[in-house]
Amino acid sequence: MSQYTEILLTQRPDGNPIGPHMFEVKHKPVPTIGPGQILIKQTHMSLDPAMLGWMMPDTNSYIPRVELGEVMRSSGFGQVVESNHPDFAKGDNVMGMMGWTEYLVSTGQGINKVQAGVTAEMALAVFALPGLTATQGLFNIGKPKVGETIVVTGAAGSVGSIVGQLAKADGLRVIGVVGSEEKADWIVSELGFDGAINYKTDDLESKLEELTPDGVDLFFENTGGPIQHHIFHRMNTHGRIIVCGMIADYTAEEPAPGPNWINLIKKRITVQGFAMPDHFGDVPNLLAKLTPYVMQGKVKYRTHTLQGLESAMTGLNLFFTGENKGKLLVEL
Amino acid sequence: MSQYTEILLTQRPDGNPIGPHMFEVKHKPVPTIGPGQILIKQTHMSLDPAMLGWMMPDTNSYIPRVELGEVMRSSGFGQVVESNHPDFAKGDNVMGMMGWTEYLVSTGQGINKVQAGVTAEMALAVFALPGLTATQGLFNIGKPKVGETIVVTGAAGSVGSIVGQLAKADGLRVIGVVGSEEKADWIVSELGFDGAINYKTDDLESKLEELTPDGVDLFFENTGGPIQHHIFHRMNTHGRIIVCGMIADYTAEEPAPGPNWINLIKKRITVQGFAMPDHFGDVPNLLAKLTPYVMQGKVKYRTHTLQGLESAMTGLNLFFTGENKGKLLVEL
């Protein structure tokens, strides 16, 4: 009987790097399926910043935390290897919430078939959480208009890179904030951003001023950190701030202060936080909005692929250091 | 030839109390009117926190600042004493932006006739900026629902007291934050608030927790200050924060930090600043929404009336100390 591996969360983040001490690696026999079930062999797993939130003790989060002793939660791509389900056939490519495991048994709930021709990379880097999040945040919350200026933090990240490209395709001036020269170069040369700020080396205030001569109308926030205050102060009247991620504060004991609200009045600014679980019912509309941009070649992506399930345990630290170059995936 | 008094702004706030050193009191002959003009004798002048913003050097504000050497800006109530205008007759009661002056000549622009039976006090305390602001902020931005909990800061103030009463009339649980026991008593006993917090003497965290057992769905912010952080942390999922005033920070050199944005994501909160000049085109709709509440006796108000134009110069300080008991007016 062949074996497979799954990884359980056994300890919550404590401010130190995430690593094997927080997980239990279990080897189990590949299960058999019952009536109405399918067996999925996961081939690619997505690592997302949201996972850091799911691991925290905070029960007040928008998605239930992962309980200690549970298989760590994640979305993934795989193949149906056995099916007792009328909607799925052996060999179908599928995606959905699969968890840190090589095999899973499913009733098909939350598992979607992937169209032929869509690779695992494209499925997880564009049509999964990153693309849906970018679409919801930019269009439904940000309501961008031609000629406006948007600043995107985490601009080389899975969500930010898509936000910037969608905004660019719609005629906005697009400035991205990144953490390396290589990423700055990538978003400008490859993705077509109008400018990049390296938050680690640039003079934030003067660089931002130079790149946003007409101020900032939209601010798509993925990171937090000191750049937030600079962008906030460049906001124009009736500006919209879309708060999507705050990686700088996910595991902070004492979150950094935010901007004073007086400018919200002076400039009539709206700051709106959102999270995709509220919008899962709207996924068909979001995909309908996103797909044409992808089909027209306006959404490029790159992936940073780790090898083997166990690499996920340390791979999550790449979100803190920003060393991942592209959508972080694990190939199983 | 009879004389009248007007007061010009000659110096901007410097962190010290506002007083006569910042103004010039001028005595001038009562003017005569030309074709199409009216002469208004102002009888009551409104003092509003927004004036503190208009006096500041910041040109980035939503209303142009008052330039040095200009008559200080304000709204008021008065009578037409001469008219060469087809729409106004001698004896008409009118309201509008009149400035710190006993008389003014107007073409009628921005001056509205006041219905018989509406006193100067009701006109300025309810149907002017305070009531319009409360209506816009609560209904159009806050979108309150029966059974929700709202916390209003500056709850005994001109805007806050109306917000609370409108919310109460619509079936919300209404908690007000005030700066004295007398005001706490007034908003609960007279206005029907469900509870009051004295930010100067109460333990903010425990009192807020006690009074908002189901958390806070709407936060109508008129003041800023440390209570802001406590209310922010009590916000429920999908909460709305309406940022209307930040009196604690209007003249601050270094505004106090705001809350970190991570909870905006976790709880999908919207924070929206607004200012009435954006909505002046919507005044007829706002009045149509507000008037039935007033006619049904659901909006009580009280006024704190200073005597004589010159009392305005020191009267503005009452906004900082919170010593005014009711809508601040000057009777000329």
Descriptive overview:
2 copies of one chain form a homodimer. With 332 residues, chain A is of the alpha/beta class. Chain A is built from 11 helices and 15 strands. Chain A has helices at residues 50-54, 120-127, 129-142, 158-169, 181-190, 204-211, 227-233, 262-266, 283-295, 312-315, 318-321; strands at residues 3-9, 23-29, 38-46, 75-83, 93-97, 103-106, 111-113, 149-153, 173-178, 195-198, 216-221, 235-243, 270-273, 303-307, 327-331. In chain A, the strands form 3 sheets. In chain A, strands 3, 4, 5, 6, 7, 14 and 15 form a 7-stranded mixed beta sheet that branches. A 6-stranded parallel beta sheet of chain A has the order 10-9-8-11-12-13, sandwiched between helices. In chain A, helix 2 packs parallel to helix 3 and helix 3 crosses helix 4 (158-169). The relative contact order of chain A is 0.16. Chain A binds chain B through residues 53, 58, 60-62, 221, 224, 228, 237, 243-246, 249-250, 255-275, 278, and chain B through 53, 58, 60-62, 221, 224, 228, 237, 243-246, 249-250, 255-275, 278.
Oligomer: homodimer
**Number of strand segments of chain A:** 15
Biggest interface reads: A-B, 37 and 37 residues
Q: What's the total helix number of chain A?
A: 11
Biggest sheet layout of chain A: 7 strands, mixed
Q: What structural class do you assign from the helix and strand content of chain A?
A: alpha/beta
Helix content of chain A: 25-40%
Average pLDDT number of chain A: 93
Kindly provide the radius of gyration of chain A, computed on alpha-carbon positions and rounded to a whole number of angstroms. 20 Å
Unreliable spans of chain A are none
Order of helices and strands of chain A: EEEHEEEEHHEHEHEHEHEHEHEHHE
Proportion of residues in extended strands of chain A: 25-35%
Give the terminus-to-terminus CA distance of chain A.
Answer: 19 Å
What is the 3D shape of chain A? globular
